[in-house]
Write a structure and sequence with these properties.
By secondary structure, the protein is mostly beta strands. The protein has strands at residues 2-3, 8-9, 12-17, 20-25, 30-35, 38-41, 46-53, 56-61, 66-73, 76-81, 86-91. An eleven-stranded antiparallel β-sheet has the order 2-1-11-10-9-8-7-6-5-4-3, with no helix packed on it.
């Protein structure tokens, strides 16, 4: 995944299915697991919820105690993070 804001790549591996998330975050050196709507980040020991609606999504990050929302278009992802009050652009 490339973060256009940070201008660097982030590496993840694993599997995401309609009912399960089993991913390893190499940058944080930890697993992210659960379901697509309710994940657990084993590095910061907090949950992350996501609700999908077509090409849009919204969620809540229990680590920052803030909401986020975004859209997916092809291999591009745009996320608005309410913690910092700005958009982030990614390519996968």
């Amino acid at each position: 995944m490339y973060d256009f804001t940070a201008r660097k790549h982030f590496q993840f591996s694993g599997e995401v299915t309609p009912g399960s998330v089993q991913v390893y975050d190499y940058g944080a050196r930890c697993h992210i697991s659960g379901s697509p709507s309710s994940m657990y980040h084993h590095g910061n020991r907090r949950h992350l919820t996501v609700t999908l609606s077509g090409s849009s999504f919204n969620g809540y990050d229990f680590a920052s105690r803030r909401h986020f929302n975004g859209t997916v278009s092809g291999s591009s992802i745009a996320i608005y993070d309410f913690e910092v009050g700005r958009f982030f652009q990614y390519s996968v």
